[in-house]
Amino acid sequence: MKFQSLAMASAVAQQKYIDIHKSFFGLMQKVVYTPTNAEVKSDMLYFTSVTATTLRHIINCEDNKVVPYVKQCDSLRFDMNGGDRLDFCYAVDHSFLAVQLFHYNDFLFSPATEVRYFFGQEASAVIGLLNKK
Predict the structure, then answer these.
(1) What single-letter DSSP state applies at residue 13?
(2) What percent of the chain is modeled with pLDDT above 90?
(3) What Rg, from alpha-carbon coordinates, does the chain have?
(4) pTM for the complete prediction?
């Protein structure tokens, strides 16, 4: 998925630790997390409200409680027909993660949370949970 197609792309691009390199007449772009010089990839996942509750808790969790909470989660249930969506972008070295939760209502996905940024071991733990599909 292309970074610029994420609803939160403009918010993430404004962060001082994100650099966007444009090439091929501005049509191609590479997003980089500058502290580790790692490429940033992006994706979105759909799921049901049960999983949304877990993700909302992670997004609203204090930094020092993220890793312990994620460790107690088995896995997340994703469903392409679900009424909730998670947009996220992450550094390929798992040192950075940005997420935003959306809920489908009245034929539109509307933000259910603000953009949340995770760094270091918190980012790595949440990315690991998202990869347990």
Answers:
(1) H
(2) 71
(3) 15
(4) 0.90
Write 77-83 long-range contacts (CB < 8 A, 24+). Answer: 77/47, 77/48, 77/50, 77/51, 78/45, 78/46, 78/47, 78/51, 78/133, 79/46, 79/47, 79/48, 79/51, 80/46, 81/46, 82/46, 82/47, 82/48, 82/49, 82/51, 83/48, 83/49
**pLDDT for residue 133 is more than 80:** no
Cα 2 to Cα 8, 23, 52, 93, 131, distances in angstroms: 12, 14, 23, 18, 19
Q: What is the C-alpha to C-alpha distance for residues 1 and 60, in angstroms, rounded to an integer?
A: 25
Backbone phi, psi, residue 12, to 5°: -70, -40
pLDDT above 80 for 27: no
- E-strand ranges in the chain read 18-23, 28-33, 38-47, 84-91, 96-105, 108-111, 116-119
pLDDT, one tens digit per residue, over 77-114 is 888 888 899 999 999 999 999 999 999 988 899 999 99
Beta strands 18-23 and 28-33: pairing type? antiparallel
Match 């249930």 to its residue by tokens.
77
